[in-house]
Design brief:
Elements: H1 4-26, H2 37-44, H3 52-63, H4 73-76, H5 102-112, H6 124-135, H7 151-162, H8 172-176, E1 183-184, E2 187-188, E3 199-201, E4 206-208, H9 210-220, H10 231-243, E5 253-255
Parallel strand pairs: 3-5
Antiparallel strand pairs: 1-2, 3-4
Helix pairs in contact: 3-6, 5-6, 7-10
Length: 256
Amino acid sequence: MRRLPVVLGLVIVFLASLAVAQGRKDQRRSGYQDMSPALQRMQDDDAANPAMPRVRAGEALWKGKAGRADKACADCHNADSMKGVAARYPAIPPGADRPVDLEGRIDLCRTEHQKAEPFGPESEPLLDLAAYVAFQSRGMPIAPPDDPRLASFRAHGGELFKERQGQLNLSCANCHDDNAGKKLGGATIPQGHPTGYPVYRLEWQALGSLKRRLRNCLIGMRAEPFDYDSPEYLDLELYLMDRAKGMAIDAPAVRP
């Protein structure tokens, strides 16, 4: 009987810790929530969202035949089958031992099934197709695959996120964990959750991938950016998607 208060005390501590952890989860914010009402309206209105013409261009590519196989994406997949796909990448494709992101998976399908040349990183048609596929997952929760092979890549991404780099001796975590919500040059520092990619950034006046955004951050820290095909970007993407698990996809998003 004398052990009962101890047990109850441990249960109370556990429940309190669980509540704190849940409260922290609830405090996650997407970049959309940190935007002005005017920019939120721009994203919400498909007639005003500057990324939507690229989605329509992606739909045309989806239906168009290409390569020596003379096949279209639509010959193998219908659009409904793409629901949730963007929420699950990066992932390891069949027969591979390393993860690819959504753009990488599109290029794999292009080379393996259409027998066509890959589009290549940040190319307009690749981003158009990625935007069309990601659009099918709008509103769905980010759901990284439960694949134990991804653990080491994800862990490396977490290390990169916290590693200080460049002449400014900063890490991603210094901004997006330690100072999120504060102002930098008049703009709100976001928490850095990748809910809207490919994203139309007003700064770019163009659509861009998460790799491009990560590259911009490295340049901003005055660090040497990785090449677009470097595995470091994929490891970072894996970590960031896991960090944003359960948050809703809002691609193709608008950001300042």
